[in-house]
């Protein structure tokens, strides 16, 4: 092989190494925490897969050895019984050492553990931060009702759950260190999307998409999941209804965009539909404590004159008004709810009615939707459709443009019409 050829190979290898280093150097260190049964491992794996990071789970890293040592002992007792601080210190020391090795070679990592002491901001937190320095530790904390955690622990049937202390499984303690709260009752996909977004991992916006070159006479917005983040509140309300009427409340998550009446008709006997619908209306209208506007909703909706925008929702008017008020959204002149139409989403009727009340053709409307049912209805009405992430995966939506949040676009005034411009 000639010296010139060898030089080219060395240059190619150096370029490859530099590219790899640039890609992985200073990768994030993400600590996924929460009590047993909160879903730490499931979320950690999903997040590691999405961000293409290695994962270190405290249980996977230390439990096999401890189980083996316990079997070798004389009394045969589980190692969690009467375990002292030395055992905990050793387990977390192993986790920190493995994480430090990954950071030292330029990799990020997802760490999965309860981190009970670390979340108190104690010396244990300082040790964790020092181990991966200078990369900061970003904490995700899964929280939810104690009953949900108990149910999940019973369902998984892990022997070690019988030896956990009540103090370690408390769900009413908020971390003292900076963290991103993640609702344990959400689906894994919803949790992963929210967590990645909160940590700054955003989907790129294609500025060449034809939607950015088009103009429109009116903008139509879905409410839940598009303008307001009400998913945790929806989950709580349907969870209570499921307990009262004896059905699996997960059906509500699998059928986002369907009207409450249609969904109830699928899961309760016919003679209970009316009472169940009255009850879910009461529950959803009353539970608005954490209903907030989605990122960018205020700015985008507030930039449009009230006569050029409408909210088109599958919810009833009582629930819709309660959530609009709770989120403090700017006013719109037209509100179309399930109470206004005979054929709700995915039928195009709600969008056609909104366009008619605004006095514009549906083909001149830009609709924002987060659910397959809503996207289909808007498409069939003739609207151009922007999909908004947070509820469903992008591939589930038949849309003209997909965004991971309304804060990725801004309104552009174009004569008497309106358009969108990408942000960032």
Quick overview of this protein structure:
Helices cover 42% and strands 15% of the residues. With 424 residues, the chain is an alpha/beta fold.
Can you give a write-up of this model?
The structure is a single chain. The chain has 424 residues and is α/β, with parallel strands linked by helices. It has three domains: 173 residues, Rossmann fold (3-Layer(aba) Sandwich), CATH 3.40.50; 159 residues, HAD superfamily/HAD-like (Rossmann fold); 57 residues. Helices cover 42% and strands 15% of the residues. The protein contains 15 helices and 15 strands. A six-stranded parallel β-sheet has the order 10-9-6-11-12-13, covered by helices on one side. Helix 15 links the parallel strand 11 and strand 12. 38% of the residues are buried. The N terminus is likely disordered.
Features:
single chain, alpha/beta, Rossmann fold, 3 domains, 6-stranded parallel beta sheet
Q: Main β-sheet: number of strands, strand sense, barrel status?
A: 6 strands, parallel
Number of strands: 15
> If you compute it from the alpha carbons, what radius of gyration comes out, rounded to the nearest whole angstrom?
25 Å
SSE topology string? HEHEHHEHEHEHEEHHHHEHEHEHEHEEEE
User: How are the strands ordered across the major sheet?
Assistant: 10-9-6-11-12-13
How many H/I helical runs? 15
How much of the sequence lies in strands comes to 5-15%
CATH topology label of the largest domain: Rossmann fold
Given as residue ranges, the uncertain stretches (5+ residues, pLDDT < 50) are 1-24
- Helix percentage: 40-55%
Query: Would you state the CATH class of the largest domain?
Result: Alpha Beta
So, CATH architecture of the largest domain? 3-Layer(aba) Sandwich
* N- and C-termini, Cα separation: 48 Å
Summed over residues and divided by their number, the pLDDT gives a mean of: 87
Instruction: Give the overall silhouette.
Output: globular
């Amino acid at each position: 092989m000639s010296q010139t050829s060898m030089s080219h190979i060395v240059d190619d290898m150096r370029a490859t190494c530099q590219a790899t280093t640039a890609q992985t150097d200073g990768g994030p260190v993400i600590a996924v925490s929460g009590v047993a049964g909160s879903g730490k491992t499931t979320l950690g794996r999903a997040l590691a897969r999405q961000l293409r990071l290695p994962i270190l789970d405290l249980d996977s890293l230390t439990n096999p050895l401890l189980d083996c040592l316990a079997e070798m002992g004389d009394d045969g007792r589980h190692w969690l019984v009467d375990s002292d601080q030395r055992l905990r210190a050793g387990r977390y020391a192993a986790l920190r050492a493995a994480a430090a090795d990954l950071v030292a070679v330029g990799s990020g990592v997802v760490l999965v553990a309860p981190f009970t002491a670390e979340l108190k901001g104690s010396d244990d937190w300082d040790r964790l931060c020092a181990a991966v320095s200078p990369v900061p530790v970003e904490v995700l904390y899964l929280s939810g009702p104690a009953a949900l955690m108990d149910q999940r622990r019973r369902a998984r049937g892990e022997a070690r759950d019988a030896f956990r202390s009540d103090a370690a499984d408390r769900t009413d303690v908020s971390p003292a260190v900076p963290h991103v709260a993640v609702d344990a009752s959400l689906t894994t996909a919803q949790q992963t999307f929210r967590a990645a977004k909160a940590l700054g991992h955003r989907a790129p916006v294609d500025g060449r998409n034809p939607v950015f070159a088009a103009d429109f006479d009116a903008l139509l917005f879905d409410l839940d999941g598009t303008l307001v983040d009400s998913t945790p509140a929806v989950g709580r309300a349907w969870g209570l209804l499921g307990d009262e009427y004896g059905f699996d409340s997960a059906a509500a998550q699998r059928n986002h965009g369907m009207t409450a009446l249609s969904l109830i008709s699928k899961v309760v006997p016919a003679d209970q539909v009316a009472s169940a619908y009255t009850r879910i209306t009461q529950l959803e209208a009353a539970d608005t404590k954490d209903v907030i506007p989605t990122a960018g909703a205020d700015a985008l909706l507030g930039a449009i004159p009230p006569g050029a925008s409408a909210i088109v929702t599958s919810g009833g008017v009582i629930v819709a008004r309660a959530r609009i008020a709770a989120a403090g959204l700017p006013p719109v002149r037209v509100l179309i709810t399930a109470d206004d139409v005979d054929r709700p989403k995915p039928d195009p009727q709600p969008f056609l009615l909104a366009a008619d009340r605004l006095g514009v053709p549906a083909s001149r409307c830009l609709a924002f939707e987060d659910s397959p049912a809503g996207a289909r209805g808007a498409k069939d009405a003739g609207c151009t459709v922007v999909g908004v992430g947070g509820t469903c995966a992008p591939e589930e939506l038949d849309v003209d443009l997909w965004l991971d949040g309304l804060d990725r676009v801004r309104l552009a005034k174009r004569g008497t019409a309106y358009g969108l411009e990408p942000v960032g």
